[in-house]
Amino acid sequence: MAEETIFSKIIRREIPADVVYQDELVTAFRDIAPKAPTHILIIPNVLIPTANDAQPAHEQALGRMITVAAKIARDEGIAEDGYRLIINCNSHGGQEVYHIHMHLVGGQPLGPMLAS
Ligand code: AMP
C-alpha cells in the first residue's frame, strides 16, 4: 500500500494549510512556496501516488480536479488571462510529494512551457 504524505494530513485538517476548496473528492490549498502570484495545489482525497497509478476508478476524482481548477481560477480572477495546470510525475517530472497533485499557477505571464 502506498505511504501517506503530508498531503493526507492536510486533507484531514490535521496540519495547517490555506485550504481554498474541499469537497468529497478533492482538496485545494495554496502552495507553501508559490512560484507565481496564484499557486494552488488540487489533490484527490484518495491517495494516488503518481499519474502512473491512475486507475479507471479514480476518473471521477481526477476529472473533478480540472473542474475545480476552473472554478478556483474564476474565483482568483485569473481565468480570462489564463493560467497553467501541471502534474509532475516521478523524478524526471520533478515530483517531490508522492500524492498526485495538480498545480494551478497564474497571475502573470508564465513564459515558455519548459525551461530550455
Ligand atoms: P511537486 O514537485 O510537483 O511534487 O510539487 C510539490 C509541491 O508541494 C511544491 O510546490 C511544494 O512547495 C508544495 N508543498 C510541499 N509541502 C507543502 C505544504 N505543507 N503545504 C503546501 N504546499 C506544500
UniProtKB/TrEMBL annotation:
SUPFAM superfamilies: HIT-like. Coiled coil: none annotated. InterPro entries: Histidine_triad_CS, Histidine_triad_HIT, HIT-like, HIT-like_sf. It comes from the Bacteria. A motif (Histidine triad motif) lies at residues 99-103. The keyword Hydrolase applies. NCBIfam families: PRK10687.1. This is Purine nucleoside phosphoramidase. It comes from Pantoea leporis. The lineage of its organism: Bacteria, Pseudomonadati, Pseudomonadota, Gammaproteobacteria, Enterobacterales.
